[in-house]
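Q: Hi! First time doing this. I have a protein sequence and I read that you can turn it into a structure. Is that right? Here it is:
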Amino acid sequence: MTTKRLRVRRLAAALLTAPLLSPVLTTPAQAQFGGIVYDPTNYAQNVLQAARALEQINNQITSLQNQAQMLINQARNLVSLPHSSLQQLQQSVARTQQLLGEAQRIAYDVREIDLAFETTYGTASTTTSDRALINGAKERWQTTVAGLQDAMRVQAGVVGNIETNRAQMSALVGASQSATGALQATQAGNQLLALQAQQISDLTAVIAAQGRAQNLEAAQRAAAQEQAREQRRRFLEPGEGYRPGNAEMFPDGG
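A: Yes, that's right. Below is the predicted 3D structure, encoded as structure tokens:
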């Protein structure tokens, strides 16, 4: 029982008992005094009805207060999170994508890769000149070095994103812990998931760049073996041999 209701009941009890203790109530119920008829029973009923009406009013006030508090809570649940890490995460992803897009020589393109393995990394032709074989080996070596450089550049970019990710994670965790409503807590959780997705994309980029460098190195070794086989075949192939000819000591007759 609330304090307001207790006070109302005490007031009603006091009003009900007061006429009974008064000397006037010792007279008959319909006693005449100053032209006014006093009925203690009617008076008690009126007081009780007033007390009940007052209690209903207090109940309505309490109900309105509860409804107001519910509206306040609903308003809090609809308040958006003041912190947003979307721009920073998008910038980190864009930096990594830019590094991948700057891949030298053989890029991350299926057609370009197929073309390179049909030509530069293809089978050594028996009709290719020695100079062309040497130039092809040099080109493959340069491509392998470029692939290793690209992998290290991507790794450096991902390492540079670590500090940004750390700052955003700290801000999002703080915003989640101080969230005033369900919407803020949900938005903080979604942004933490976005941060995790960005970190996974960085990891994927590193693995792809490292795998590209390793594959280019392996392709270079395979092409070098094929070229060495062709050069050995040319070296061991029988030639025309030595043909003697006329030699002149002093061709000018001097």
